[in-house]
Structure formats: C-alpha cells, structure tokens
Design brief:
It contains five helices and nine strands; from the N terminus they run ααββαββββαββαβ. The strands form two sheets. A seven-stranded mixed sheet has the order 3-4-5-6-1-2-7. A two-stranded antiparallel sheet has the order 8-9. With 297 residues, the chain is an alpha+beta fold. It has a domain at 85-291: Nuclear Transport Factor 2, Chain: A (Roll), CATH 3.10.450. Helix content is 43%, strand content 23%.
Length: 297
C-alpha cells in the first residue's frame, strides 16, 4: 500500500496529540488510580481485619465450648472408672469376707463367724434343716458348738464365686461352691471324715463401709461318709435324723433337696450372655421331692 504525502503528515500529528494528552493528564490519572486502589485495598484490609476479629471471637467461643465439653466428658469417664474401681474393691472385700467364713468354720469359731453377720432385721441363715432368723437365730445355730472338741475338723473350701453388686453398691449377692469334709473325732486314731459338696447363695450388705453377711443360704448336695470296717454303715437320712436333736430352725425345711433329688438351688444371676433368666425354677417344678428327713417327728 502506498501513502500520499498528506497521509504521512496526519499520523504523526495524531500521535503527538495523544502523547501531549497523556503527558498533561498523566499525573492526575496516575494519582487517581493509585488513590482508588489504595482506598479499595484499605477498605478490603479493614473488612478482612473485622472478619478475622469476628471469626477469632467465634473461634474462641467455640474453643471454650469444646474445652468445656471435653472436661465434662473426662469428668464422666473418671466417675465411671472410679465406680468400676470401687466395684472391684467391693468384690474383693466380699471374697475376703466369704473366705474368712470358711476359715472360721474349720474349727467352728463361733464368735468370729457370728461377727461376720450384719446387725440388720433381715439377717438369716439357711441350712439343710431349715432357716434361722435374725441375729438370735444365727447365734443359736453357730453358738450350739461353742466348745467343739479339738478333734473337730470342718474344712469347706469357698470356691467359684459369682458376685453381683447392686446399682448403688450397698448390697450384693454371691453364689459359691463349697467342697470339703467334716470329722468329729478320729476312729482308731484315724481320720473318719464325711465328704460334702454344697452351694451357697449369699446376700451381703455394706454397713459403715464394711461388707457383712446379710443372708446365708446353704444347699447341701451330698454328705458322703465312706464305709470302713471301723465305721457303722447307715443311710445318710438316718444319720441326719440322729443328729437333729440339737437343731432348732425358726422355719423347718419342707423337702429333701439333697442328691439324688435333682434339685437346683435357684441362681440369683441371669445368663451372662443372653441376659435371660435361667431354667432351674421350671426344672425344679417338675421334681417329685421327698419330705425333709429333718422335720420333727
């Protein structure tokens, strides 16, 4: 493309005009632009600081709330752990109580045994012949052999406990096996024992921070005395009848629940897996139990 001389003159003039315009208004243009940018940035910074301050305030409240919730949660956890620890201590104290009973029973230490029971109107002790009520009944049973002979030996191991504490931790129940022997006197200088297997269903109560026996229930499964040439052979029922002359329960047992009756002493605890009641009561209802051999004639 070719340009005429007139065109060649007009283009430089236009450029010069634009240049002069820029030079003349440049300072104002630049100043206004920077001012606008400055003001915009200033407003943005102020808005940001306000937002940050607001967020910081909200964040502080949130953090305080979280700390309060955490403290509350930890407090609850500590209370739960304290209760679990106390439960374990209570269970150990109950085990000690029951085992002490077994050791005192070995030589029929009457006063020590009686002192294991609580001073409470619901105290009782149940044995094969019947139930002794109150501390008077407990003392009547255990006090009848206050002066047992040195040859007397009654070892009953207290084993296999299942202990259940109440929700408030002030009462408890326990089931134990008892295995051992009883020997009143040697025969021809030899031990003449009767072997026994029993179940205990116990009620305990805490009084002034100390666990005591509230109810003792003794279910004898068998009392077996091996026959020897030195011992007279007689039926267990006959031996029991011969020995009941100094027994005086407040409530006599109605039925003979010893082996081989099949009777299952009711359990205080539910099934540990299913949480259901166990079936011994239904089973016992179908048994044909004989009258107790201890009933007065």
């Amino acid at each position: 493309m070719r340009f005429s001389g007139t065109h060649m003159v007009k283009i430089p003039v236009f450029i010069l005009v634009i240049k002069q315009f820029l030079l003349y208004y440049a300072d104002d243009f630049i100043d206004d632009s920077y001012l606008n940018i400055y003001n915009t940035c200033k407003i943005a910074v102020m808005n940001r600081k306000y937002k940050e301050a607001h967020e910081m305030s909200e964040s502080l409240d949130t953090r305080v709330k979280k700390l309060e919730d955490l403290i509350s949660s930890l407090t609850n956890q500590l209370e739960e752990k304290d209760k679990k620890i106390q439960d374990l201590l209570d269970i150990e104290a109950i085990k000690r109580l029951q085992c002490a009973y077994g050791y005192y029973l070995e030589h029929w230490m009457s006063e020590e045994i009686i002192d294991l029971f609580a001073d409470h109107p619901d105290v009782s002790a149940t044995f094969v012949e019947g139930t002794y009520l109150g501390m008077e009944g407990v003392r009547r049973y255990f006090g009848r052999m206050r002066y047992a002979s040195p040859e007397f030996l009654h070892q009953v191991m207290q084993v296999c406990p299942v202990i259940t504490l109440s929700d408030d931790g002030q009462t408890a129940k326990g089931r134990w096996y008892g295995y051992g022997l009883i020997s009143s006197a040697p025969v021809n200088d030899n031990l003449d024992p009767a072997y026994m297997g029993v179940t205990y269903e116990m009620d305990y109560i805490k009084q002034d921070g100390i666990w005591k026996i509230l109810k003792l229930a003794f279910q004898m499964y068998y009392s077996y005395k091996p026959y020897t040439a030195d011992s007279k052979k007689e039926a267990p029922e006959q031996r029991q009848s011969n020995n009941n002359t100094n027994l005086s329960p407040d409530i006599w047992a109605e039925y003979n629940t010893m082996y081989p009756s099949g009777y299952i002493y009711p359990m205080h605890f539910v099934h540990p897996v299913t949480g259901k009641e166990t079936s011994e009561n239904a089973f016992n209802a179908g048994l044909d139990l004989k009258p107790s051999p201890f009933l007065p004639k």
